[in-house]
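Q: Can I see a sequence and its folded structure?
A: Here is a first one.
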Amino acid sequence: MGTGKKEASRKERQGKTGDGMANVKTKGENFYRDAKKVRSLNRLKEGKAQRNARGEITQAATFQSREVPNARIEPNRKWFTNSRVISQEALSSFRDAVAKQTSNPNTFLLKTNKLPMSLIRDDPTPTVNGLKRHHAKMVVETSSYGDTFGPKAQRKRVKIGLDSFSALASESTTMHDSYLDRLEQARLLRGNADSDAEIEDLTNGQLAAPREAIFTKGQSRRIWNELYKVMDSSDVIIHVLDARDPLGTRCRAVEKYLREEAPHKHLVFVLNKCDLVPTSVAAKWVKALSLEYPTLAFHASITNSFGKGSLIALLRQFAILHADRKQISAGFIGYPNAGKSSIINTLRKKMVCKTAPIPGETKVWQYITLTRRIYLIDCPGVVPPNASDSEQDILLRGVVRVEAVENPAQYVAAALAKCQKRHVERTYELKEWETPDQFLELLARKTGKLLKGGEADYDAVARMVLHDFLRGKLPWYTPPPTEGGEEEGKTKDGRLGEMKKQRLDKEGEGVEDAGEDSEEFGAVDPADIGNLDEEFTGFSDEESGSASEGETLGEGEDGEEGAEDAEEGEGDEAVGEEDEAEGEQDEAAGEQDEAAVEQDTAAVQQDETAVQEDEEPSGEADSPPPPKVAKAKGQGKRKR
């Protein structure tokens, strides 16, 4: 007998076995098989019936008995009527209610498996009584893939499905009209009215001009594979847009894919770089885009961010909606150089993703842990191909690197057209230029970018201007969609493109110029200037009215400086009121302390007087000097 057996026997004799099942024996347990082994063998034999030598079943397996048990059916009328039936009126009302809630971007339909969604939702594909689907099914059944393609292909010509040339001509006309409708719809969705000439050229059969290879960046198969991996792995898709051009940086193809192929995923818009546009413009864009999907304004910065709390709260709400899951993932998608990695670094408050002011820095997707239940996924920037996008549009969206573009001076005119001339003059301190070439000439002379012989280096200056345009030094923005009573372009500029100003020595100088400037571009309201340190709580539906000239314009160079002075004056008044209130509180406390000290002094004097009367009844001795009274705290404090 081995040592292990002896030790086990000793523990059994002494009753030191912990399970208390030492005396309980399992059927089939012996010296060679313990109880655990016997139970495992019995589990393997449970699914089989026991048979004799002739093959007859002597003992049926579990749940395989051939004996029919006696049973009674409850005599209830429900067994003979329809079950789970809904009338057409109730179904139509339910369908309308679901469609109304589905159109609301702030409501989500959960647990769709418990609802007959095939009856509620209409088929997105156009069908006529199911004929199109039936035709496709019949084509697959009659012409398999092996009979159509490969070495065993039987047919030689394509089956058009038309019986005459007139039918073929009408079908071609219909397809061409539908193609033009799709082009028109794409143009309207982009909000670009300058692509009419290009569409006319396409309709006339003319080919577009060849583009440089650099303008096809962001469309490779590798990047699209990374994008689809991110979308498949994410529960929430965060589409990062540039606040200066939200419509130009929207991926319509991705939105269509999510709407048709993955409607269960949540799509959220994040307007990044909102510090580069006026507050009123950002508010209007948030209000316009919120009609389609939830939209937030954001400023990516590790030290001084804006909208961080709102985005984290939104992600936590999605985690609460999907409480049955252990965690949720949020994928960041969008155009290159839109700020996807910067937003993730802002949420984590440290550098976890590599960032750069040039497009194409992120190469592959990356998983980042935000909380125990929320994960973030960084994705490379993707550029959906669009025939109506020109080279100027692609370059001014920051999709390609300016250093790799040939002849960058030809795109400066489009960049200057998006900016206001006064902002360009204020940024570069240049005046009296009319054409883009003249502007580049003056800027080259000023910055010293000259070639041999004193000629201006147009390419170097153009790259500098385009870099300033893309990186926020040169202010610009796309005007938001206007409502019925508003005038397009009447948006407050805020501090857009403001330079460092020098205060004038003489009071009142420059007020007239500032008044003219405010009449031309609208006075600046200090209430419209957002504070990026505070959390984003939303914008008001209506813009606050412009302040009067006497309230906003003070000493300064223009209306914006006057607004700044007015804001500083209001801040000083608020500080003065706070100090005055504190001074009044201190005075009240000092008066109370003084009254208490006077009472104590009177009591001490009474006690001393009584003692003197007892010691010197004649009263010839000099009275003691009054005790020193400590100055109460806050006594005599002046108002500020």
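Q: Show me another, different protein.
A: A second, unrelated one:
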Amino acid sequence: MCDITGRDRRGMRSLGIGVVLVLLSGCAAAPTQVTAQADCAHPPAYADGHGVQATSAGGTIYALFFTGDEGVIAGVESKIVWRITGTGPARFSATGPNFQSVTPTWGPEGHGGSTFNHPGEEWGTGFVFPKPGCWTIHVARDGVSGSLSLPVR
């Protein structure tokens, strides 16, 4: 069937669908940066020297674990260096199996700087997780909050 101008409506419809598909393919979401998982199914790479990015809102949070290849072990203090954007003091807590809660055994201590090159100010903490299982460290500064889940052996 032809319209008044003599063009085939089916051909125009096919052309229109093709144009829409081309435009949509150009609107695909940009690749997202890999962040730490919200569960313990994908543990952070502790010994890579680059740190892991926590899941966060309002800014960025990175953690560098000083644990060696064995990861975090229950009952053994783990030193963690953090880079956190935002302002004000850093606040930390952790929640583990059966909703058990712990706070750092030391810190947060502000650091003057290091080779841990990520956005924000640097802080150090020590945590002792009393039992094995999945633990989530909660981090906050004014304007930024986030979490990082990790398996504790």
